[in-house]
Write a structure and sequence with these properties.
Blueprint (H helix, E strand, L loop, with lengths): L1 E3 L6 E3 L17 H16 L3 H9 L10 H10 L21
């Protein structure tokens, strides 16, 4: 399928026609692989297991100053929580407000 760029009036192939059009391939992970990826990232960023991070996150231990280096690393890990928590919603990250 082809579309037309309105500004240049040129025909442009859609990305699904050219899989190498600058997009990385989609990797599907098993639940075990996803946990392993999350665990490696937690250990690399914070020096704790992924399981320990989730436990602390759910207990509200990461509420506080968001301007510290640890908070920045924590926020990077929070973006990966859907790998291990299928019920995670981004607005869960606002749970610390009002504390």
């Amino acid at each position: 399928m082809v579309t037309v760029n309105r500004r240049t009036r040129r025909r442009v192939p859609l990305p699904d026609e050219e899989p190498s059009a600058g997009m990385p391939p989609v990797l599907e992970l098993t639940p075990e692989e996803a946990r392993a990826v999350f665990d490696r990232k937690a250990r690399r960023l914070l020096g704790i297991s992924g399981e320990e991070f989730v436990r602390r996150w759910e207990a509200g231990e990461y509420c506080g100053d968001e301007e510290t280096d640890e908070a920045r690393l924590t926020n990077r890990l929070v973006m990966s929580l859907p790998l291990v928590k299928s019920d995670f919603r981004l607005d869960d990250a606002d749970r610390c407000r009002g504390r």
